[in-house]
Specification:
- The structure is a single chain.
- By secondary structure, the protein is mainly α.
- Among the domains are: 195 residues; 100 residues.
- Helix content is 69%, strand content 1%.
- The chain has a two-stranded antiparallel sheet with strand order 1-2.
- The radius of gyration is 27 Å and the shape is globular.
Length: 579
Amino acid sequence: MIRLRIQTVFLCLFLAFPALLSAQESNSSTPEKEEPSKEALELLEIIATSIPSLRSADNRIYLSTTVADLMWAHDEKRARALFETLTRELSEAMANLNPGDQRSINLLSVIQQQRREVIDRLAQRDPAMALSFLRATHPPSGLKTLGNESSLELHLAGLIAQKDPEEAVKIARASLRKGLTYSAVSLLQNVFSKNPEAARALHTEMIDRLRTSDLSTDHDASNAAWNLLGSFQPPQANEDTYRSLVEHLATVVVNLKPDLRNGNSMVQNASGQISSYLTQFEKYTPGKVNALKQWTQRIVKTQDPGSTLYVELSELSQKGTIEDLLALTGKYGKEHHGQIYHYAAQKAVSNGDGARARQIINEFIPEGSQRQEVLAQVEQQLFWASVNQNKIPEAVQALERIQGVEQKFQFLLSLASTVQGQGDKKRAASFLSEANSLLESFPRNFQSLGAQLQLASAYSFLDSKQSVALLQPVIALVNKLVEAAAVLDGFENSYLNQGEWSKRNYTTLGNMVNVVEQNLGLLAREDIEGARSLSNQLERPEIRLMAQIEIAKSLLMKENGRHSNFRRLHKIVTAYPRH
């Protein structure tokens, strides 16, 4: 039986703005050199001056990194000094770790995350300085393996490949001596855009390294090999070199024992990859295609009916008809019929035929919770299809068939975002007003708090006064919750670090505090005074500083056109906890 998970308001946040889910915001603001706002510089000065007073090294490092990044275009000398201070602090922290101490091992993961955050920002500014930072902050020899240093080095190589492809290739070659990983493979495209010959040479070295690995047991190398097959093909790759990779993978596969009954994940992975890359095998190693097909057929015999059905459903959903899907009920037992009807209904939705989808559900799925859940999912899909096609009247009609208050709230926000993007602020305000009226129906918990923050972020573009009115009680409540959490610290969750509120506090309340800070940054783009006034109402100094860095960041990004309002909104939406 197909069971839909009950979606909370937090999960629905991902659905509220579907067109934005692919939007990505750079880790670095990289503003162009121009006269920044006095407000932004004033806030950066306040924060920079306050950093030394913080007890938590984690908070100091986070704020110093962000301030240095934002200052770079306006005061490079001071920004470099901040990064140099960070290098010394993290180097000392690494040197003080004891490989035999469990607390040091736990602390290492935090320091590694801090290093990555510094590298993410610094690599965009000065690749050579970023590389020096990485080398100066290596973990002690006894902790290097736990620190996964190779992965961090390759991450840096990927960041600097555009500016310094030769250095990126050097880092990748050093990593190859330890084995081929997915991170190394992902470098090829970046290097190729700047130096095609260097990328092809590195590609050859990667394939030579694969030949020394046992792809039947080494999961990392096997995943890297398949990724290499799909991500770097002729004409980017040398034809003969690529052929050698295809032939090697074909040989490895036919020598795998085709038996899934023991849960062999390598076999499972290979069987899926063969169907995906059959065209490549037919072109570059035609003599082994029959053996590969026979191997795949033997795999099918060891699959359970559910797995076989899934493969057929996936294929027919793409290439077949609704009737083809429904015909599978004659091939599989009744225990699988619900899944088949579900796929058939989804196929009707993808065809834009909501009436047929409802007919399939009401006719074939027995009355009860499963039917209601599948119907609810279909109505949601129809709503999103209308929104994505800019068919607002149809979306409004679909909204009337949505039963849940929380879902209606999310869908109204999505409609507001869509029509606002079309320049219809009046209608956007109407949808937000309707969403606001639903808040009273929410229970008093984190869900309602999250919904109110969502609404405040949406209003910040249309009516900043309304956004302030929504944020004011949230901040007052968050102050009380944070005070209570500080008392509970260590008993229920870890909220504090060295007596200060932790930025890496990933509890529901911790995530909510982060979203409040981001909301204030968003509000500042339209109402700097309102945002600063609200930030001053945050009682804990470290939280207040975190909010102010968001405000300064938002002001600088607005000045330099680094992202649209909707991208900023996406960041805030996806910051909520998910259950």
